[in-house]
Design brief:
homodimer, alpha+beta, BirA Bifunctional Protein, domain 2, Rossmann fold, 9-stranded mixed sheet, 5-stranded mixed sheet, 11 helices, 29% strand
Chain lengths: 407, 407
Amino acid sequence: MRLSKTFIKTLRTAPKDETATNGALLTRAGYIHKEMAGVYDYLPLGLLTIEKIKNIIREELNAIGCEEVLMSALQNPELWEATGRFSDQEVDIWFKTELSAGGVLGLAPTHEEPMVEMMKNYVSSYKDLPLYVYQFQTKFRNELRAKSGIMRGREFLMKDLYSFHTSEEDLDEFYGKVEGAYKKIFERLGLGDSTYETFASGGIFAKFSHEYQTILPVGEDTIYYNKDKSLVLNKEVFTPEVLADFGVDAKDFTETRGAEVGNIFKLKFKYSEPLGLKYATEDNKSEFVYMGCYGIGVSRVMGVIAEKFADDKGLVWPEAVAPFKYYLVGIGEDGTRKTEGIYAEHKDEILFDDRDVRPGEKFADSELMGIPQRIVISDKTLASGGAEVTNRATGETKIVDLKELFV
Amino acid sequence: MRLSKTFIKTLRTAPKDETATNGALLTRAGYIHKEMAGVYDYLPLGLLTIEKIKNIIREELNAIGCEEVLMSALQNPELWEATGRFSDQEVDIWFKTELSAGGVLGLAPTHEEPMVEMMKNYVSSYKDLPLYVYQFQTKFRNELRAKSGIMRGREFLMKDLYSFHTSEEDLDEFYGKVEGAYKKIFERLGLGDSTYETFASGGIFAKFSHEYQTILPVGEDTIYYNKDKSLVLNKEVFTPEVLADFGVDAKDFTETRGAEVGNIFKLKFKYSEPLGLKYATEDNKSEFVYMGCYGIGVSRVMGVIAEKFADDKGLVWPEAVAPFKYYLVGIGEDGTRKTEGIYAEHKDEILFDDRDVRPGEKFADSELMGIPQRIVISDKTLASGGAEVTNRATGETKIVDLKELFV
């Protein structure tokens, strides 16, 4: 991408009401634009980052046999009334609207109900199971407050996966596979070292659910971890009873803050029973389908990564999610000519700062935008033997022969 | 994709309230699932088709310098009040909702207002222009009736492009480029022969706008075309006055039905003026930005293609938008073994019917699903010299040497 051709500019200031670091930096660096609290637009660089995050998740889910769909935001209340979740007393984050033809609709905050209802068309026999269906979908949640940038959206992108099984054993086995996939996903996203599978409240159908918590000072959750971080507990289950269950002592745990980037949950019959999702067993008995659900907040993950790695100069993207791997700057006649040649051959990997502005401004923008490697070519670098390559995360600089740049 | 592994099944019947051919066939073939009138989910094959349509549009827009973003559905009324478009009297298809923190929000039926407001951050000088910004975004329109399957959605996917210019000449020039891009897009979508740029009412700011109408018996518009189809007029401008303007005679025109798949519109200052999108000229005068907007209904296009090419056996996809190019069936031990080998090498192009069902059921499903080429390998076809390849559109069948299948 040529910066001279894009409409994006880095901005000196973020909106006055933007209190979150991720929101302010992503806005200033030209990744997002704020519509209102918790509602953001994704600009070209932001959309590229979102797509990279989605593709990492997609690859790992497809690898364990999951299938991608896309469901609607508009919701028929009937299904949600069957599970008791349409009432504002039960679920207090609904956006509701009126159909002009008559009747109330909801904007889906999650998709268990329509997913189960849809699967009634496709599941009839044990032979049809197991099934694993996911989507990347824009969810709507009518949050009273939304002050965490893209880490807490009223409109946000989520990956939600639902699994369907004939037995608890089969559910358990697939649940384990998702744990494996999530481990790979958070590693590839650059959050592997700081993201922990955390025990959280399981609601009324299971003792625990699992959250994926990324350690982050501005995270909304309080979590406790033991010395080797082999056991991490959300505050809501950090009770004497639970600690006794695990045979551990509260004094061996350290309190910290976490941002929940994912969660996985054994639903069992919670939705299949009220909505009547059944299958015929081998001996032709009619049984409810076992279910699990597995979320990752895609736009939240982008906010967490932004927040976690940022420094005083701006964003610092891990390579796998950066919109471009290289930020290219030419200085002087020779440098500019050589960068044009390099850009022509590696367009997809390069954010090319071909603007008519001072090198210092280009360097500052490359840092604010957080592109992993900056390549500068000038008379000086050429005299030193090639291009100057600077690593955004470490600040390390080296001279690289032009022929070695993309090998 | 292996049919034995996907949750999709072809269905014998569509929902009782599904009156549109596209909706019924796409449902029966496992591409979509109906949530309510005008609201559909996209199943794996449907999502693949949508993505192919998006990619064709994306490629042609990127080729003329457009940049992709993604804006929010939730809308702050303020911007729309500035243009007079928040009132239900002016725009009667709003879905509105209440923010729990207080205040009414709208769900965007289109995006001129937020787009213009956002660009105020990025446009200040003539040097910043022209700019071309588009998105693929889910629109919400509170239609009183929605009986046309995915051809008229209450929630639907649209590509909307907005252009920003310093002069009417520059707007005109870019408008011409979009006309060129649209011609290529509809050709690549398989609709080139049947889609015409059509004069329609321009509202109060221009004499005409242009619609792209695909000739279709169930289309919602009445259009008139002359003998060589060099002039096509929407009924709304098929008036004695307009005919006189063009120097043509009503009797030389034929009436037919069209489905509007796209539209392009010179907005000039319609939104930049009330919202205050201005730029500084070379001699530092402050002027309003000229604008154009350019839509294509992505999910509608999918419905139109489904509707247009369907026959009594089911869907018939043009190759460029088919979820898979080949439908593969093995019969008998040798045939099955050979299809497994072929599938392993060409997974991305093949919908592999490896289910344990009769060949006749597989053939019927391949036709219902509308996959362009069916490859059957059996003892009989092997004895004849290879695989039997059947063209879904023409019904033409030939024997192809296995080595020649994917060359």
